[in-house]
Amino acid sequence: MKQALFFFGLLVSTSLCSAADLHAQPSPGSEYADVSLFPAHDVLQTGSSSEAGLRFDLADGWHTYWQNPGDSGIPAGIEWDAPEGFQFEAVKWPYPAIFREEHLITHGYKDETMLLIPFSVTEGVAPGSYEITASLEYLVCDDVCLPAFETHAFTIEISGQESRLNEQVQDTFDRFRAKIPKEDHTLDAAFTADGDQVILRLQGEGVPAEQALRSIHFFPHEDDVIEPSAEQKAVYSDGDLWLELKTSRYRSSPPNVLNGALVIETDEGVKAVVLSVNR
Amino acid sequence: MKYSISIFLLAVMLFTGHALHAATGENNQAQVGEPAPDFTLVDSNGQEHTLSDFQGQFVVLEWLNHDCPFVRKFYSVGEMQRLQRHYGEQDVVWLSIISSREGQQGHMTPDQINATFEDKDVKAAAVLIDEPGDVGRMYNARTTPHMFVINPDGVLIYDGAIDSNSSANPATIEDAENYVVSALEAAMNGREVATPTTRPYGCSVKY
User: What pLDDT digit, counting tens, does each position of A105-115 carry?
Assistant: First the structure.
C-alpha cells in the first residue's frame, strides 16, 4: 500500500513538473491563435458525462493541425489535470482541410475549429465546484511554424441534481459536432492492398452520384498509413466508387486496416464519414 | 470483407498505367534497405562532397532549417551538437543538408551558414547546400529535422524522425527514444535496426 502511495505521489509530482516546464517555455504560436476551453454543461449531475470544447480562433493565413497532420506538423496535444473521478476520453476531431506546400500536403484547420473532448464524472464525486486544467501544446504555421505551450482551465459544478447545459455555447458545440466524421450505414467500404497500392471500394446508396461529386479524400487517423501527398484518383465503375491510395513509405508492409475520415464534397455540401475497414 | 481475385484484377485494370512499387529503389529514390542514392553537393566552404566517397563509414544526413522550432528544440539545448560530436568521434560522417529555396525560411548564404556554425557550436562534418532541392526530393526529405542513416556499405538503414516524441519542447528529449542513436548503435554492434523507418516530424522542408 505504501508503495502504491509513493508511486502515486511520484506520478502527481511528475505531472506537476511537466506543467512547470510548460510555463517556462516561450510560446510564440500563442500570438496567432486565440484558444479557449469550456464545458458543455454549467452543472453536471454526478455519475454522468459531458464534453469539453477546445476552440481555436486562428489569425488570417495561419493554420493548425488535425490528428494526422500529414507530411509535416504536429497535432494539438492535451494533458488533463483533473480531480479523482473525472475521466477524459480521446479527442473528437472535426474533419480537416488540405494545405499544400510545393509537393507536400498537410491536414488541418484555418480560421477556426473546435476539438471536442468527452468526459465523465463517476457517482463517487461529491457535489461541489471543481477546476479542470489542461496543458496544451500545439503548432500554428503560415510559411513558418511556431509552437505554443499554454495552460487552460475551466470550473464545473458537480451536483446531486439534474445537469444544466451552458446555453451560450450550445450553438458552437453543435456547429463543430456536425463536422466530426460520422458512421454512414448507406456506404459499404472495402479495400485491397498490394505493395504500395491501396484501393478503396465504396458501394451502396451512400455513394455520391458521379455528376454531383466535386471531391473525395481519405484522411487516415494515423500518420504512417497512407502517403499524404499521393493523388487520390477516384473512378466510377458500375455505380461503385473506387479510390486509389498509396501506402505510406514509412510502412514496411501494406495496411491491414484503414481507419480514418472520408470527406466527400458534392453539389449538396460536405459529408465526413468515419471508416474502419479491414482488408 | 475479402475480395475475390476477379474483383482485384478489375481494380488493377481500372488503374492501369500506375507504376508498381519498385522494391529496388529505382528512379533513384531513397529506400530503406537499398543503396542510398548517390549525390554530390557543395558545402558552405565551397567544398564538394560525394556520398559514395564515404563508403566504409557510417553517414548521417540531417535535414536542417535553423528557424524551425523542431530543429531549435535540439540545437538550443546542445543536443544535436552533442550527437554530432559523439558520433563524429566514432568516425561517423554527419552531414547537415539545407534544401530551402532562396527566399524561403531556412535558406542561408554560405557566410550565414558558417556564422551559425560558429555561434551554435555545430559539430557536423559539413553543411551542404541543396538549393534546387534535388537531393531532398531524391530522399523524400519532408521535414526539418528529417534523419537518414547510411551504413559503411552505402545502404540506407534508417529514414525518419529524429526521436519518438514530436513535441517542440526540449524537455521531452530526455525520455524519448532517439532513432538515429538506436540505428547507429544497432548497426555498429552487428544488430538489426529495430526501427528502420518512422514518419518524420518537424516543419516542412521549404522547397
Answer: 999 999 999 99
Best of A64, A135, A249, A256 to mutate (most B CBs within 10 Å, chain B):
A249
- Is beta strand B48-50 parallel, antiparallel or unpaired with respect to B40-43? antiparallel
Domain assignment of residue B163, given as a range: 31-204
Joined together, the cell numbers standing for residue A241 give 466508387
Rounded to the nearest 5 percent, the helix, strand and coil shares of chain B are 30, 20, 50
- Residue A201 contacts B, CB cutoff 8 Å: yes
Strand order in the sheet with A33-39: A33-39, A49-58, A112-121, A86-88
**Contact yes or no for B204 and A104 at CB 8 A:** yes
Give residue B28's pLDDT: 82
Any A CB within 8 A of B10 CB: yes
With a cut of 80, say whether residue B56 has pLDDT above it: yes
**B58 with B22, same domain?**
no
ipTM score of the complex? Answer: 0.88
Name the A residues in 124-153 with CB < 8 Å from any B CB: 137, 139, 141, 143-147, 149
| Least Cα separation, residue B114 to chain A (angstroms) | 23
The pLDDT value given to residue B8:
56
pTM: 0.89
Record: contact B15-A244, CB cut-off 8 A: yes
Is the CB of B196 inside 8 Å of chain A's CB atoms?
yes
C-alpha cell read off for B4: 475475390
What's the gap between Cα A148 and its chain centre?
18
If asked whether residues B177 and B197 sit together in one domain, one would say: yes
The whole-angstrom separation of Cα B99 and Cα B106 is 8
CB pairs under 8 A between A and B: 106
**Interface contact B202, partner A, CB < 8 A:** yes
H or E segment to which residue A167 belongs: helix A167-177
Task: Report the candidate in B139, B38, B15 with the shortest Cα–Cα distance to residue A193.
Answer: B15
Tell whether B142 and B40 lie within a shared domain: yes
Task: Indicate if B8 and B90 belong to the same structural domain.
Answer: no
- Residues in A touching B99 (Cβ below 8 Å): none
The pLDDT-based confidence of B10 (bands split at 50, 70, 90) is low
Q: Do B1 and A278 touch (CB under 8 A)?
A: yes
H or E element at residue A35: strand A33-39
The domains of chain A, with CATH numbers, are: 5-177 (2.60.40.1250), 188-278 (2.60.40)
Taking the CA of residue A240 and the nearest CA in chain B, the distance in Å comes to 11
Number of independent structural domains in chain B: 2
Cα(B202)–Cα(B70) distance, rounded to whole angstroms? Answer: 5
HSE-up (13 A, CA, CB side) for residue A123: 0
Cell numbers of A128, please?
461541489
**Residue A16 scores a pLDDT above 50:** no
Is a pLDDT exceeding 80 seen at residue B94? yes
Q: How does DSSP classify residue A247?
A: B
